[in-house]
Amino acid sequence: MAPIDTTTRRGDREPSDSVAGSVSVVPKPAAEPLGSRARREPLVRAQNVHRILGAGEMATHILKGVSLSIEAREYVSIVGASGSGKSTLLYLLGGLDRPTHQDEEGTRFDPASRVFIDGEDTTGLSDGQLAYLRNEKVGFVFQFHYLLKEFTAQENVALPMLKLGKIGHDEAMDRAAELLKSLGLGDKIRRRANRLSGGEQQRVAVARALANKPAVLLADEPTGNLDKRNAEVVAEIFNNLASQGQALVMVTHDQALAARARRIIQMEDGNIVSDTTQA
Amino acid sequence: MRWFISIRYLLAHMRQSLVCVAGVTISVMMFIVMDAMMQGFTDKFIIETVESSGHITVHDEPRETRTRILEQAYRDPNAVLVVEGVKPRDQVKKIKNPTGLVATIRRMPGIAAAAPQVTGDAIATYGTKTINLSMYGVDPDQITAVTTIGDQMISGDFKRLKTAADGVILGRGVSDVLGAHLGDNITLASSTGGRAVCKVVGIFQTGVTPVDYSRGYMLLQNAQTLLDKKNIVNEIVIRTDDYTKARDLAGQIESICGYKTESWQEANENFLKIFRIQTIITYFITGALLVVAAFGVLNILIMAVLERVNDIAILKSFGFSRNDITQIYVLQGLVIGLIGSAIGLGIGKLAVEGLRRLPIQMEGLVKVEGLLMSEHASQYIQAFIGAMLVTLLASVYPARRAAKYDPVEVIRGAH
Prior knowledge:
CATH topology of chain A: Rossmann fold
Shape of chain B: elongated
CATH class of chain A: Alpha Beta
Oligomer: heterodimer
Structural class of chain A: alpha/beta
Strand order of the largest sheet of chain A: 6-7-8-3-9-10
Number of strands of chain A: 10
């Protein structure tokens, strides 16, 4: 499998400000000066994040004040039982959902329930601004691939780039083709999404998530819907991405997959109960 | 980008999309055809009526300008004033100094021509056949300058009224009822006892049935004798430079001459009301068709939204906002509307041209040899704007519904 270009774009920063390394497709950016990361905000930061679903008697307190930071180049697994709030946390970290700001009685959480993506507080962002932030800085991979079946694999991957609008159609299609080739789908570029196997579709979904060189890749049970062989392929892709410096947060039930990450966060009943970094 | 997705989604459901497009096409086409037909009929009636009867008519009814003597004495507007045993004065109705008035009217701006005439009822008899007639006593030279009656002769010549003693020109309907043809002598009798045997010197056909079946023309002096209206002119017919301005000019003329002055719009108010109702019915029917088409668009877009909940979620996950999703679905409505309208306009135009060539003879309020189709750019513009508006409106609800989907709920499987 060819190396993947995951050179992270962080807004309009100078190339030296890039947070992730790159591989052969795009020249690797200059090495980050020692200590520069310490002066910057974490890539993603959750501050006393609460999430309450429903209202009144039906209200369910899913997340109960979770705080964590994800730094650049980190490979993080979030594990826990079903209903522990892993996926909810992941969606909040990626700006797909918004945290709840007050409890069932209407009292505001202190400190405020907030998520910062690349240093930007998502609380006050409009729907359009948050969507732009997701487009530019976050890549999502879900348990099910959710490809647009009327589009080819290449078009599916190009869509986020076309949406961002920083590159033209042809360039976006070229980059989509490169990404697909790097994930071993060079011969399936123009195939309609619904003509691909499950494993192939999930790889296209990974390529799509990487399309805009996101600051962070968020994966929710990325192998949950795959057979063992395809799960291993996707796990290997994630390993490669992590080794190339792509920040990656993955929610999984698969202990073996989780163990590949350097940092493992254990959740239980809406709280982080352990946060360990392996040597 | 949004266009790209919208078009692809529409193409994915080609059959349903085509049905929606067909709905819009049929509505637009029907509107154009029906409106052209109705407008053609209205235009024919108006033009023929206006051209054959003049744009404005001054009648011999003086406008009441003086306050009655009783009302002068009792000024209370709520008072009921009753005078018993009043014997009406025997008053001859006529326009005073018609020659001077005609000259004055001709000098007014916007007036093309004016002609005096005398009118009255008569009974025409030919053999055993009789028919009630409205007799018009005219000066052929003047009346042909005011109306197009001279051009509407199907046999004979209007100017022959001048040369033939006791000549009469009949409408085609009158001649058909009587069975009288060119050169035949018919007997005319008025309610005042006047009687004349006249030779048919011409037959006209305006195409307006009420005119063709009730009108006859004589020389002014002959008509005055027949109707017992010696030296009397009871109408002045006027032609304006622009018949649409007849109402305003009629008001001006009435204020100058003091006689009741009627524009063609007032004279044909009842018919014009019918035409207005007809137009409303046309709009109603085609509007109903458009609404049906709009429901088709609404239906297919709702189905498209329901089928693509996952797509909506994933589009949102990689950067599409609610506004973007709304636009994707509104654009689909827009595309259906655009294609449907464009085809509808084209087919509508072809249908109008085709129907115009159909040789269908009809005789109702107007007599025609084929379907009367009247086209205006405004019909096409109205049809286009209407179709676009309705399809856009139909796409708003599904689009907003699509935009409201919470991607998290969708991904969790709540939808």
